[in-house]
Write a structure and sequence with these properties.
The protein is mainly alpha-helical and 450 residues long. It is 63% helix and 2% strand. The chain is built from 18 helices and two strands. The chain has a two-stranded parallel ribbon. The two termini are 29 Å apart.
């Protein structure tokens, strides 16, 4: 890192939780280096505003949550635009959009936002009686036949995981997706192209996140004395989702051009290895098993018995470690579009949506198991979508490295100089980037022609 991009004391203090976590998350560490360069100089004032917001807003919202005298009197649509909430953050579009905005400008501050909100909201739920006025048990009170850690605390932790996806995971994922797409031509894309890629990726992920929210937030009510989910907790995401998607997409576009425009450059820290060793495959499988456990916890609100849990776990395992082990051994049909292409993504998404609609029309939901068909849909579509999307991707990457198409590479295949020339050119520009006042974003090492 150059001297001009060296982070100051404020940046280091505000990103302390993120820097600790970056030891286990390479992409988060890369984003911290990018943001250190982005918020150097005059832009540090804007970083200060974001840091104050990341600390103050969760605390103020939690205080308002703890002191709310009773159920909201305004109609649900008006209440959805309030900056505060009565029982859970899903009631407030303003709160959710603010959480995303902080993470979009700096994923490291998104980590800080969650780190402050979790203890503050737990305290608020422990003292606030949601929906019962001034008497009765608080929200952080277990339902009958449930221990405290089984019900309210676990439910709140699940809700914080869902908010983490919005404030941290979506910004990080969109940066990598957009950059990988933008550098496909082997040259530096314009600021508008980078911003458009950021906005498109954000719109897609935000749509799926907001549509899943009414289901993922269920444990906060079903596992506690709150009982049935309130209309306020679903109105902001179930009916008003277009406003949310448009809002976060606009914010994502703004973060791509301000306070400094994005510059798409490859980063060696995220560069994929040319060949995968057995040890690296094992590590990948272990990480994916951990990811399955986390996803299972987030989807726990959809599960009502052991059979549904078994079906969902089987589907997630198939989509994760099983597909990872099977993909290198699959023969790629000729009718499939090239791996990592827009056509492949559109085809995989179209088939996945068609299969989803087909399964969702099947009978099977009951009062005791209201989400049986939805669980079955997730278990089937998740591995199918990944197979369609990633089949042949590793072979294509290896072929690009050796200058031959999949199935026709070999030791004698000449190695093209495209990648090395591209990287050398970008590294030389990177060394001059502090003088241009531009912002660098990693492409994850995807500077080859894919």
């Amino acid at each position: 890192m150059t001297e001009q991009a060296r982070p100051g004391a404020l940046f280091r203090a505000a990103t302390t939780p993120a820097r600790w976590l970056s030891r286990y998350r390479t992409d988060l560490g890369v984003s911290l280096r990018e943001d250190a360069a982005t918020f150097a100089g005059p832009a540090a004032r804007f970083f200060l505003v974001l840091a104050v917001l990341a600390v103050a807003y969760p605390i103020i919202a939690s205080v308002a949550h703890a002191q709310a005298p009773g159920p909201p009197g305004a109609d649900p649509i008006t209440y959805a635009f309030s900056p505060f909430f009565f029982q859970v953050f899903a009631e407030s579009q303003a709160f959710m959009i603010a959480a995303f905005a902080i993470g979009a400008f700096s994923p490291g501050l998104g980590v800080l936002f969650i780190a402050v909100f979790v203890p503050a909201d737990l305290v608020a739920a422990a003292v606030h009686c949601g929906g019962c006025g001034s008497a009765g048990p608080p929200e952080l009170h277990a339902r009958q036949n449930m221990e405290m850690w089984q019900g309210p605390i676990a439910a709140r932790l699940i809700s914080y995981g869902v908010l983490w996806i919005l404030a941290v995971e979506i910004p990080l994922r969109v940066r990598r997706w957009a950059t990988a797409w933008a550098v496909r031509g082997g040259r530096q894309p314009s600021v508008l192209v980078s911003a458009a890629a950021i906005m498109a990726g954000t719109a897609i992920l935000a749509f799926f996140w907001v549509r899943a929210m009414p289901f993922l937030i269920q444990p906060v009510f079903n596992w506690t004395v709150l009982g049935e989910i309130s209309i306020q907790a679903t109105m902001a995401t179930w009916l008003l989702w277009p406003i949310f998607v448009i809002g976060v997409t606009a914010i994502a576009g703004a973060s791509a051009v301000w306070p400094r425009p994005l510059r798409v450059l490859p980063d060696p820290a995220l560069a994929p290895a040319a060949t995968a060793s057995v040890r690296s495959v094992r590590r990948t499988v272990v990480r994916q098993i951990v990811a399955v456990l986390v996803l299972m916890a987030l989807l726990a609100g959809l599960v009502t018995d052991l059979r549904e849990a078994a079906v969902l776990i089987a589907g997630l395992l198939a989509a994760g470690p099983v597909v990872t082990l099977v993909l290198p051994r699959l023969r790629i049909p000729r009718w499939l579009p090239p791996a990592r292409s827009l056509a492949r993504w559109i085809m995989a998404m179209g088939i996945a949506l068609a299969v989803s609609q087909l399964i969702l029309t099947l009978p099977g939901d009951t009062v005791e198991r209201p989400y049986l068909v939805l669980v079955l849909t997730l278990a089937v579509v998740a591995p199918l979508f990944r197979l369609l999307l990633e089949a042949g991707a590793s072979q294509s990457a290896a072929a690009d490295m050796h200058g031959a198409p999949p199935g026709r590479r070999g030791p004698s295949s000449p190695r093209p100089s495209c990648c090395s020339q591209c990287c050398r050119g970008w590294r030389s520009r990177q060394s001059r980037s502090p003088t241009t006042g531009t912002r660098r974003m990693s492409s994850g090492g995807l500077c080859t022609r894919i």
